[in-house]
Amino acid sequence: MQRKFTEEQLSVVVKLYKEGRSCSAIARKYDVCHGTVSDALKRIGIQVKRLKEPTKTLPSTEKIAYFAGLLDGEGSMGIYHKSPSCVRVSLYITNTSEQLMKWLMENFGGNYILKERAGTISNLRRTKDSFCWRYYRNVEAYRLLKAALPYLIVKKSQAEYALQGLEMSLKRWNQSP
Fold first, then answer.
1. What pLDDT sits at residue 72?
2. CB proximity list for 8: less than 8 A, separation 6 or greater
């Protein structure tokens, strides 16, 4: 595993990072650890962000409804039980449009990663690269799922289950949604 970038690689790393790619996604592309990318960017004066901070207020009703449609059709929810009263919820939306990933980040926060081509589908054609938007923060996930709940169809029961778990966790840690 390499530990430093060439000048040419570093310019591509900077370009990808400024386009919105995460350090982890860039690290996978070059087969290096996250810290190698983060350190390289810091050395040349680029402030590395963790996740795009969520907005303090939720977007418009139309954007929430569109988000619910994306979550129903292209998304998934990870509900992780650390203990009976401690739940962590992650939201994911996968799509081949990087423009959509940037829209999700701009409106809801989170980040996205590039998922390289998987190869062939039934040996007929190559699949496209895809992107996966990820959202991990419990308090904000609670607010977002609560707002999207009336518009969800396919994942409504899963969202209700996630909200119940999040309510228990937030009470346990004295956090308010």
1. 97
2. none
